[in-house]
Design goal:
α2 crosses α4. This protein is of the alpha+beta class. The chain contains nine helices and four strands, in the order αααααααβββαβα. It has two domains: 80 residues, no CATH class; 97 residues, Nucleotidyltransferase, domain 5.
Length: 208
């Protein structure tokens, strides 16, 4: 901790000082609707990634007649905070209950995850080989039992995509799926950025 922070804690009170008055809303319903519209258009990505994309996405939606932006609204898009975005999207009446707001990567919660470096792929890389990896569940509304998954590799520089259906998400089928996809790639893999599901984060697949 910074020494000023330590001094502040030592000289201050341990309990949080109660607020004497409630803070009023800083953003009007027009901005709230705009943020919710943009969040839906970007498939409810996490608020941390949604914030830097508010400006260009709002202008794109405006060009298609989906939003009406005035000067005041344009300025507020650049000053709105991440916590406010989370609150506005969470309170959206138009969201489906089954769609959960995606969270930013959290701290590793297991010894295995703690050994895996977590980072965001830079936006200025020019060498292909950086793959996002995830599975699509073809289970309908019920995720119980064994069903078909689509295992997909997406290379972020070139946009190259490979995918294969697998039955279940056990190590045996995931290994076969990866081997099939790796044989189809036209360039070597430099790094994988998988989802944090157990089908990816397990000792057998990491060893393979």
């Amino acid at each position: 901790m910074h020494r000023k922070s330590v001094l502040h804690i030592l000289n201050g009170r341990l309990s949080k000082k109660p607020r004497t008055s409630n803070r009023g809303k800083s953003y009007d319903p027009i901005l709230e609707y705009a943020v919710q519209k943009i969040a839906k258009s970007l498939d409810y990505t996490c608020a941390e990634r949604l914030k830097p994309n508010l400006v260009w996405m709002a202008e794109l939606l405006q060009s298609h007649g989906e939003l009406q932006l005035d000067d005041d609204l344009k300025e507020k898009r650049t000053t709105i905070g991440v916590s406010t975005i989370k609150r506005l999207v969470k309170n959206s009446e138009h969201r489906l209950d089954k769609i959960a707001f995606r969270k930013a990567p959290s701290k590793p919660n297991s010894q295995l995850k703690a050994k895996i470096p977590i980072k965001i792929i830079p936006g200025d890389i020019c060498v292909p080989g950086h793959f996002e990896v995830d599975t699509v569940h073809h289970c309908g509304d019920n995720a119980q039992g064994i069903y078909i998954y689509t295992l997909q590799l997406l290379e972020v520089v070139s946009g190259w995509s490979e995918f294969v259906p697998v039955y279940g998400n056990s190590f045996a089928v995931m290994k076969d799926g990866f081997n099939y996809l790796l044989a189809e790639l036209p360039f070597p893999v430099l790094e994988f950025h998988p989802g944090n599901g157990a089908e990816f984060i397990n000792k057998l697949l990491l060893k393979h």
